[in-house]
Design a protein that fits this description.
Layout: H1 20-40, H2 45-61, H3 67-76, H4 78-106, H5 108-131, H6 149-152, H7 182-197, H8 201-220, H9 226-271, H10 291-305
Helix pairs in contact: 1-5, 3-4, 3-8, 4-5, 4-7, 4-8, 5-7, 5-9, 7-8, 7-9
């Protein structure tokens, strides 16, 4: 067979095999596991407060406690504080899926890598929540000088005093999952992909601005420390480094599962082939059972009748 007659190999085609009805359940499954794990990762409140104070002291020691001036500014100026609260409460739920859908439809050749990067980094963040429960600045005692802008401006939006959770639903969120900041991490993921793969210079500029503004907002609303933001960047960097190994492991597991499934489907027919016709087996060249036997008897009859002529 010539090379031109060979069937095209779909695995060599960028984005081949992408189906939304397989991608969506996978993403929802990972996000559901992350959300459930985040709720189950609730640690001791006293320990979380101690971790928060330790981070604050470490920032003050190196003069990087940027949260205080930003929080005072957002509290004093509603025209800054209210939009910042809307930004914090909603954009990571909107922008991240929009970028995923855009990659799926317009940049399918990098979609799987980008999706694996996001999921891996999110799981790393969950490990951080489990190992280091941390009180955000807004939940520290009042003498530390922080004001919860989400509670301060709650009359403007759907949120209450439990971060971005809707009023009355604070029990469904873990308010001590501050380290690392995945608000910053997810914004960085979106920004890198928009900056690298968008064609419009305006979209590229948005890719640069989005993670920077998100970092300012998470501190100004007293939801994260500056070191939380840096930890979010570190989680995304580690997730990026692990993306290729994770994809290789996933591909091997998928291939192994396919082989097991193929073997399970093939073994019954190979070992338990049913006998359906007794002596009436057909062989090569026969269309109906006993065709050869009937033909042989006809030949013998013809041979016996020949001498009588």
């Amino acid at each position: 067979m010539s090379q031109t007659d060979e069937a095209p190999r779909t695995e060599a085609i960028p984005g081949a095999g992408l189906r939304w009805w397989t991608e969506l359940p996978l993403i929802l499954l990972v996000y559901g596991a992350y959300s459930a794990g985040r709720l189950l990762a609730r640690g001791d409140v006293g320990q979380a407060v101690d971790h928060g104070l330790a981070i604050l002291r470490a920032e003050q020691a190196v003069h990087l406690n940027l949260e205080h001036p930003l929080n005072r500014l957002f509290t004093r100026e509603p025209w800054l504080g209210v939009p910042a609260d809307f930004w914090y409460a909603s954009l990571h739920y909107l922008v991240t899926p929009i970028v995923l859908v855009w990659l799926f439809r317009r940049r399918s050749e990098i979609y799987r890598t980008a999706r694996t990067w996001l999921m891996t980094s999110t799981m790393i963040g969950l490990i951080g929540f489990v190992l280091l429960p941390t009180s955000p600045p807004r939940l520290l005692a009042a003498n530390h000088g922080f004001i919860d802008t989400m509670a301060h401006y709650s009359s403007y939006g759907w949120w209450g005093g439990a971060a971005s959770a809707p009023k009355g639903m604070g029990g469904l969120t873990n308010q001590y999952a501050a380290m690392p900041s995945l608000h910053v991490g997810w914004a960085l993921w979106c920004g890198v992909l928009l900056w690298r793969h968008a064609r419009s210079p305006y979209v590229k500029a948005m890719g640069v601005a989005y993670p920077l503004l998100t970092t300012v907002i998470v501190m100004g609303t007293a939801n994260h420390y500056f070191f939380d933001a840096l930890a979010g960047v570190a989680a995304m960097a580690l997730g990026l480094l692990l993306t290729k190994p994770v994809r290789l492991v996933a591909a091997r597991l998928k291939d192994r599962a396919g082989l097991v499934l193929a073997g399970a489907q093939a073994s019954p027919s190979a070992t338990h082939a049913p006998i359906v016709s007794g002596e009436c087996q057909t062989s090569q060249g026969e269309r109906i059972p006993r065709q050869r036997k009937a033909a042989a008897s006809q030949d013998s009859d013809d041979g016996a009748a020949a001498p009588a002529r």
